[in-house]
């Protein structure tokens, strides 16, 4: 029996994306986000999650989607990459999807070489397509370091600074 791939599914725009369940620590409602000066536009800011400062990347902006008004369905998917927590802002997140390996197409069969190198495959599940992501490629090393710098600079700022 082939082992199913378990991914956490979330939506950005009209598409469903998936990341390995092993990377996801939790999914939270969007709390107050503190903006960070001079951060790239896709870095929404930082949140305080039970005493830990976590940078938040808006995947909608990262994927050049139009970001509408905030919704009650918006979520932050907290993932762990290289021993650091990062929040990913998405339109909605809810489900664990189990995709049989036989239902996953390799990215080179779907996309041109190098075009979208952060996609590990496209899964087919009950008539839906789930785009499987490699978060390490979406957030390159320099960006991960910059996120660390952002979180550290916020932790060093005294309380009472401006929040969004």
Description:
This protein has helices spanning 59-62, 135-138, 141-156; strands spanning 5-12, 15-20, 24-29, 43-49, 52-58, 75-81, 84-90, 92-99, 104-105, 119-125, 128-133. It is mainly beta. Strand 6 (75-81) and strand 7 form a beta hairpin. The N and C termini lie far apart (50 Å).
Describe how the helices and strands are arranged:
Elements: E1 5-12, E2 15-20, E3 24-29, E4 43-49, E5 52-58, H1 59-62, E6 75-81, E7 84-90, E8 92-99, E9 104-105, E10 119-125, E11 128-133, H2 135-138, H3 141-156
Parallel strand pairs: 2-11, 5-7
Antiparallel strand pairs: 1-2, 1-8, 3-6, 4-5, 6-7, 9-10, 10-11
Give a quick set of tags describing it.
five-stranded mixed β-sheet; mainly beta; six-stranded mixed β-sheet
Question: Care to give the gist of this entry?
Answer:
This protein is mainly beta.
Q: Label the structural class.
A: mainly beta
Q: Beta-strand level of the residues, as a percent range?
A: 35-45%
Large-scale geometry: globular
List how many beta strands DSSP finds.
Answer: 11
N-to-C SSE string, H for helix and E for strand: EEEEEHEEEEEEHH
The Rg value, from CA coordinates, equals 16 Å
Strand order of the largest sheet: 8-1-2-11-10-9
**Poorly predicted spans:** none
Helix content: 10-25%
Oligomer: single chain
Count of DSSP-assigned helices: 3
What is the average of the pLDDT values?
A: 83
Report the span from N to C terminus. 50 Å
The main pleated sheet reads as: 6 strands, mixed
């Amino acid at each position: 029996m082939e082992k199913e791939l378990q991914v956490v599914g979330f939506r950005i725009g009209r598409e469903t994306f998936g990341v390995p369940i092993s990377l996801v620590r939790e999914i939270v409602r969007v709390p107050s986000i503190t903006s960070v000066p001079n951060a790239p536009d896709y870095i929404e800011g930082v949140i305080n999650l039970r005493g830990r400062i976590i940078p938040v990347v808006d995947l909608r902006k990262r994927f050049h989607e139009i970001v509408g008004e905030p919704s009650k369905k918006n979520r932050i998917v907290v993932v762990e990459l290289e021993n650091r927590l990062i929040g990913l802002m998405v339109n909605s997140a809810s489900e664990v999807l189990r995709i049989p390996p036989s239902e996953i197409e390799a990215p080179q069969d779907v996309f041109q070489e190098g075009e979208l190198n952060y996609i590990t495959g496209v899964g087919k599940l009950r008539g839906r397509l789930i785009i499987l992501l490699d978060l390490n490629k979406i957030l390159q090393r320099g960006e991960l370091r910059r996120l660390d710098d952002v979180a550290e600079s916020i932790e060093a700022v005294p309380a009472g600074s401006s929040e969004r």
